[in-house]
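User: Hi! I'm working on a homework problem where we have to compare a predicted structure to a textbook description. Could you give me the structure for the chain below?
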Amino acid sequence: MIKAVIFDLDGVLVSTDEYHYLAWKLMADKEKIEFSREINNRLRGVSRMASLEIILENAKRKYSEKEKQELAELKNNLYRDYLNELRPDDLLSNAVEIIKYLKSKDIKVAIGSSSRNTPKILNQLKITNLFDAISDGNNITKSKPDPEVFLKACESLNLTPKECLVVEDATAGIEAANACGMKSVAINDAKNSNLADYKINDLIELKKIV
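Assistant: Happy to help. Predicted C-alpha cells:
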C-alpha cells in the first residue's frame, strides 16, 4: 500500500530547465566551450559537478579541481540569479492540487531532488510547508541514479521503500527509485524509459494510481 509520494522537483512540480541551460551557457561561453541544448539534455537529473564534467568533455584544455569548483560556483550563482524570477504561477499543471489531494487521503508527500537549490525554489514557489519531508542535494553525497536521496526521504517519513511512490521526469531518477525498491511514475522526458511502473501525462493522473 502506498503511504507516501516522493516528488522530484525540477521537471515535475516546476520547470527551471531554461534557467539551468542559460546559466551553463553563460559559463561555457565565458570559457569558450561548445555547449548546446543537445548537450544540456544529458545533464537532466545529474548533479552539478557531474554536469560540469560532461560540459568539459568539449573543453580545449584540462581544468584543475580548484578551477572546476570555481566554474560550478559561477554557474550556480548565475542560476540562483535566474531563480529570483520564479513565482507560484510557474508551478506545473495541477501540482498543488495533487499534493493537497494526497494529503486529504492521509498520504504523505516529500521532495526527493538532487538540487542544492531546493530550499530556494520551494520558497520562491511558496510551497515549502506542503511537504512532510524534504531530501535534496544538501543532505546527500551521491546523485541519481544512486537511490540515496529517495532513501533519506523515506527515512524522514518513517516508512519503508515499498510504501513509497516516486514521481520523476528523468531516467536517472526512475533508475534510482527502482534501485531501492520503490514504485516509480514517469512524467515528461522519463516517459521515454521503459523502466517506470507507470507513465502519466499530467500530475492529476496520480489519483488513479494511489
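For your comparison, note the following. The two ends are 8 Å apart (CA to CA). Residues 15 and 92 are 7 Å apart (CA to CA). Good luck with the assignment!
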